[in-house]
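Researcher: Let's try something more involved. This one mixes different molecule types, so please make sure each is placed in the same coordinate frame as the others.
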Amino acid sequence: MYSKEILERFKSPKFAGGLRGANGTGKSSDDKCGDIIKIYILVDEDGVIDSAKFKAYGGVSTIVACDVACEMLIGMSLEEALGLTSHDILEHIENDIPQNRYYSAVIVEEAINNAVEDYYKRKEREEKKALKEM
Amino acid sequence: MNKRVYLDNAATTYVSSEVLAEMLPCFNAIYGNSNSLHSYGREASAIVDRARDRVAHAINAAKSNEIYFTSGGTEADNWAIKGIAHAYSNKGKHIITSAIEHHAVLDACHQLEEEGYEVTYIPVDKTGLVDLTELLRAIRKDTTLISIMAVNNEVGTIQNIKAIAKIAHDYGIIFHTDAVQAIGAIKLDVQDMEIDALTLSAHKIYGPKGVGCLYLKNGIRIENLISGGNQERGKRGGTVDVPAVAGFGKAVEIAVRDMTINQQKLRSERDYLLKNIQEKIDYVTVNGHPHQKINGILNISFDMVDNESLLMLLDMEGVAVSIGSACTSNSAEPSHVLKAMKLDDDIVKSSIRISFGKNTSRSDLDYVVEVLEKAVSQLRSISAVTKAGRK
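Model: All components are placed in one shared frame. Result:
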């Protein structure tokens, strides 16, 4: 069902947990299976993702898809992150998980988009606040 | 990984040494075709007859010829549902079953629906008990068959089979029950319980896989499911798998013979594990009926923990449990049984089934609690769901 490599990554994910100082958080879920995930990103001043982590209430494929995506996100610009699709994530894991678990990559893509959107919203709020204070 | 603990005995069991000893001579010593006329055939036929007698005796069938061997529970369920529905189609085309049946029953019913039959799926309450008022309400003039499982395979709830059979007969309806999880766990007496048709399987009771039977009361009509020979009184074609049938007969005999002592052991295992889990892990919920359930199954939810992830972490430490029924656990959809019990989505998503066996030791259970505590803690630490007030 799952490959050995996938199970090893599931057991010891590199990017699981909260992210101190995250300036973008994206949540998404799958209605059918009830999986809920959160992706946290820390974007530096140049708009590059410095760090990414996740929390997941989901199965093996969802935890691994989150972990793989976080690894891919680090070093990406926000535009690149927004361009990251479920297909890009699946390329790394599709041969190692059952087809009926491909939905995991779809919710990860959604969470990434929401995290980037959240970052932009926070930034906009901060800029408005700064303007008011001037 | 060194230690391994198997707690998925409701999915299947190992073949016990007593059963294996019964089977072994049938592979190379008594290997005749039980339908052959010569002495080799007669020897094999005697083995099959003895197994049939053992099964009949175990469920108190009036006659041994009411036992028809099949390739297992799935075939027997399919045969009972389709065969009885077809045989009585002149009377009506309406069937009643429950929402928590095994897929062997549900899928057979779906097939009948495609043929134009109507099926009513009776709901269950939060403990998994079939609602008898709903059952009565569902009965129609054209209802020919009611099929309700004796014991549910996911939560272990025991149905009120005798009462359901009585309701069926009050309205002249045939009653079938899938008793795969019930044999050896509760007393089954087809005459006292007024059961017309009953499904059994060997591999849940330390017998071989691929063999089971349908008990069919004499006088109940059934259309053949498998044609191709005059085996099983012309009702089920195919050369009888003599070693498997011999093992099945022995397994049923032992399951009933040792029922009291086995049930005491299973109950003690279940209570011990549950007590230790509840002492060491917060936010656990036990699913199923509080009392009217078999001892061998513990369905339990660990809040904020996905059950597939929990199953896999336990597996990596050598502990085997299951989620949903084994037949659907490769599907990402939640258990149809727990959904039918109208449990909260979170309870369904976080539930695992622990099913105990004859050989489980206290040290095995201590190891399971240790591994479970670690796995639940790991998954909760990364869970995207939190609970205010969580300890």
